[in-house]
Amino acid sequence: MGPKELALLVALVVLVACSALSLVLENELASLVSLSAAGAALSIAFGLLSAPDVAITQAVINSGLVTAMFLAFLKQTGSKTRRRRGR
Questions:
Q1: Which structural domain, as residue segments, surrounds residue 71?
Q2: C-alpha angle with apex 84: 79 to 87, nearest 5 degrees?
């Protein structure tokens, strides 16, 4: 396994870990940051797979624009996270 394959493996592990983390986090802002990190890892993976056009598009759209939109929506609506207490 060469350095390029190892870097791709690390990027994919980070992608899966950040995606799973964004599902289990209760705080919307932390989940958004984790989802943005997953998008950045996917962009790196596309770059390592010799698809620079897809990598740049992924970085701009998912990690940039979508994250900014979600952040604006969270700021406008406020946090809706409430902890449920056991009965």
A1: 3-77
A2: 165
